[in-house]
Cyclin Y (Oncorhynchus mykiss), 340 residues
Amino acid sequence: AGKVVSCTYSAARLLFVIHLHYEGNWVPFGTYTIVDITYNDIPVTDSDFIFTELNMEYNPSDHPRASTIFLSKSQPDVREKRKSLFINHHGSRRRKHSSCSTIFLDDNTVSQPNLKFTIKCVSLAIYYHIKNRDTDGGMQQDIFDEKLHPLSKSEVPSDYDKHNPEQKQIYRFVRTLFSAAQLTAECAIVTLVYVERLLTYADIDIGPGNWKRMLLGAILLASKVWDDQAVWNVDYCQILKDITVEDMNELERQFLELLQFNINVPSSVYAKYYFDLRSLSETNNLSFPLEPLSQDKAQRLEAISRLCDDKYKDARRAGKKRSASVDNLVGVRWVPAILS
């Protein structure tokens, strides 16, 4: 029914993602290894396709050292903001700084992020994705098109894919889903990982006409992967009244296929996205709320420090040498430090 015109090759996984061009649309045909690809019982060689190599080492959603896409997308706007502040001589919002008597900490850690501000940062990252997307665009997927699969019964405007949404609009959409489904802040970070993985794996762009359904699919998967008590697909139909269970199931299925069923998020990748979101908040004056260090919190920090100290005490003792050669007097010295 269609002609195979392109094939994407992943050297790291030895997989081939075949796409068909059928009636003006790009349709994923499947993922195969080279031994699986035949045509009329004749093995297909690499000369029969145009290959685009995907270097997984530079995929930010898989590799911890690769820079996140949203952070690079935000750089043009950050430079313009800094230039505007310099020209108008307006300083940034004053921040609280710690002193000898008072220490200010934010209620946000990599293991327990702040829900409200994490959602704000993720919404801002999606906003930069949409605003600074590539003009040429990538392949379009009908499952994410809000014209073909509307989320409400209200009529979709004819120019629905022409106007970029504001950051507040994205935030309200994500916050509504997270509040109704009682999702965690960690789930929001995993959602952003899945969105960037979808953009790189499927070679598509997120824009005004598909961002809601992309986020919905990413949130759906993230809640099932991360949370112990996942939200059922039918539960999202209670949040979005006009969407059907069949539509949610199809959205989940195609999202998984486009991700090549790779839903694993390593801890190193998760930590990278967390700290890059913090960097994004700093450059956009969206800093996390600072609170003075209370006595109760200080005691908990001291307890954690003592626990870690006891944990590694044996390792430190094992690293000490009972004797040293005269030829090598330089050794490891363990000096206790007093923090006050």
In short: Strands lie at 3-10, 15-22, 25-32, 38-39, 42-43, 51-53, 104-106, 290-292. The chain has ten helices and eight strands. The first helix runs from residue 69 to 88. Residues 1-16, 31-40, 44-56 have pLDDT under 50 and may be disordered.
